[in-house]
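Lab meeting, item 3. Inverse folding demo.
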């Protein structure tokens, strides 16, 4: 007897509908799975057999053939365990159900329990587009599955519960997708001193600008970077769904629902280029995609391997990663805010007014070249983080909180949203040259200063436009419709790395 059910396969961060066909044919007892399965799916034969028998059903000695259609699409993971098991029970006459009535997904343990899988929210979007309005998912994935809405979600813990859902004996999950949000967290009020650096990260957050923090060890670079998410606005629903899809495929949700806060990723400096950008035989997401709509913090920036740093060039320009393999081309979103932190030299005290630098000029030059180059040209703001005097560390005065800064950032982003209404651009840092010419008109004095700076500092064309984008954000924070002289001067002050090394 032929039995069919509906499941899903992950392709990048998207999902595809997969028909699971089970047939019993003549021949010696066997269990064959076809349709380009990976090793995890091939190993599922033993899991499914044990799960069925330990759930109180019979696994008869017959010749089973399982086909995962379409056959030309490479399938991976243990997501097909549950639909295969349910189809086998229907094919052997042990369950009077319609396996194709409700799409389902789930990994099986040997005792018949249904375990969570990755990419559920992508699967929900796929079946919604196909016209389905119900789904069976593992119990731990219930919040993620319910996040989209307009879909009846049947969370199950066992094969028996899945059969009850197909018989119409189960109730759908009533809850909405819960949010993944940190409780409490760091606050900018904890940071003593560093007013110029605080101003720089406020500008970076307001315009989604990439930023480099460099300075002496222990000056507060990491402390400042880890507080950037606290001044970023909540994600819109569209951003939250896209971010949740990426984190679900990457296995980062841990039973949660929509990710509504900007993600913060901080890979170790020993990470490989594949770990950072994504890849593999069947490509999956990397750190730059997990940081989509949020912050990618690269501490000890110069300690990353050169090929890892250079791999950032494409996502910083295109805001996505494209990986081509024999099984197809995979696109992963990667629109993140890069926050890099580095010591200015090997000993770390090059710009320290108290501790002398012991590095030779050759070592200082080599260190600068590791920071500089094509990636530095894609960083909008460079700020020197100096050592905080002891009197400031002991100062009892109150500092501005993250909430106060966040309000200004949100107001600046609202101005950007009104400016780019109807356009694909969302932030000043993403303005095209045509949009720069339209929205970054300068007065005579501001234009004269910028022209002089370009000649003296040998600013590249890419950096020239980045200065204008930064100046536009500074003007937005000030509530100014036009870019003035003060805005240009402040924006130019944040392109100071090369100048400081030449002093």
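The presenter then showed the designed sequence:
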């Amino acid at each position: 007897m032929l039995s069919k059910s509906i499941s899903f396969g992950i392709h990048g961060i998207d999902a595809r509908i997969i028909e699971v066909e089970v047939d019993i044919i003549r021949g010696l007892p066997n269990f064959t799975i076809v349709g380009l399965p990976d090793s995890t799916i091939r190993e599922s034969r033993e899991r499914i057999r044990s799960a069925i028998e330990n759930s109180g059903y019979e696994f008869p000695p017959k010749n089973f053939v399982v086909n995962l259609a379409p056959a030309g699409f490479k399938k991976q993971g243990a997501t097909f365990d549950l639909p295969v098991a349910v189809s086998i029970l229907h094919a052997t006459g042990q369950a009077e159900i319609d396996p194709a009535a409700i799409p389902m997904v789930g990994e099986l343990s040997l005792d018949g329990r249904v375990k969570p899988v990755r990419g559920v929210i992508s699967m929900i979007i796929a079946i919604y587009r196909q016209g389905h309005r119900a789904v069976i998912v593992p119990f731990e994935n219930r919040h993620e599955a319910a996040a989209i809405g307009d879909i009846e979600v049947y969370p199950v813990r066992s094969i028996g519960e899945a059969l009850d859902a197909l018989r119409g004996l189960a109730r759908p999950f009533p809850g909405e997708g819960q949010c993944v949000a940190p409780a409490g967290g760091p606050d900018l009020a904890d940071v003593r001193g560093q007013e110029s650096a605080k101003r720089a990260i406020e500008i970076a957050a307001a315009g989604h600008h990439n930023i480099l923090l460099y300075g002496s060890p222990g000056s507060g670079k990491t402390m400042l970077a880890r507080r950037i998410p606290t001044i970023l606005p909540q994600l819109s629903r569209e951003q939250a769904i896209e971010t949740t899809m990426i984190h679900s495929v990457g296995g980062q949700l841990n039973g949660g629902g929509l990710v509504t806060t900007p993600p913060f990723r901080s890979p170790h400096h020993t990470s490989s280029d594949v770990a950072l950008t994504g890849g593999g035989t069947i490509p999956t997401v990397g750190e730059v995609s997990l940081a989509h709509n949020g912050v990618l913090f690269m501490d000890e920036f110069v300690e990353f391997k050169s090929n890892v740093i250079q791999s950032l060039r494409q996502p910083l320009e295109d805001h996505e990663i494209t990986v081509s393999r024999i099984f197809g081309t995979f696109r992963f979103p990667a629109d993140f805010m890069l926050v890099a932190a580095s010591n200015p030299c090997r000993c770390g005290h090059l710009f320290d007014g108290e501790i002398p630098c012991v590095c030779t000029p050759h070592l200082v030059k080599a260190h600068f070249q590791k920071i500089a180059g094509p990636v530095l040209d894609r960083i909008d703001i460079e700020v020197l983080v100096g050592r905080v005097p002891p009197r400031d560390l002991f100062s009892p005065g109150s500092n501005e909180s993250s909430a106060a800064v966040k309000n200004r950032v949100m107001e600046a982003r609202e101005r950007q949203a009104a400016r780019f209404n109807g356009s694909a651009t969302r932030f000043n840092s993403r303005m095209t040259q045509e949009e720069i010419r339209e929205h970054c008109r300068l007065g005579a004095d501001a234009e004269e200063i910028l022209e002089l700076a370009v000649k003296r500092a040998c600013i590249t064309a890419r950096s020239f436009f980045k200065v204008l984008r930064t100046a536009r954000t500074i003007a937005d924070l000030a509530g100014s419709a036009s870019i003035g002289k003060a805005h240009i001067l402040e924006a130019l002050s944040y392109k100071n790395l090369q100048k400081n090394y030449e002093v």
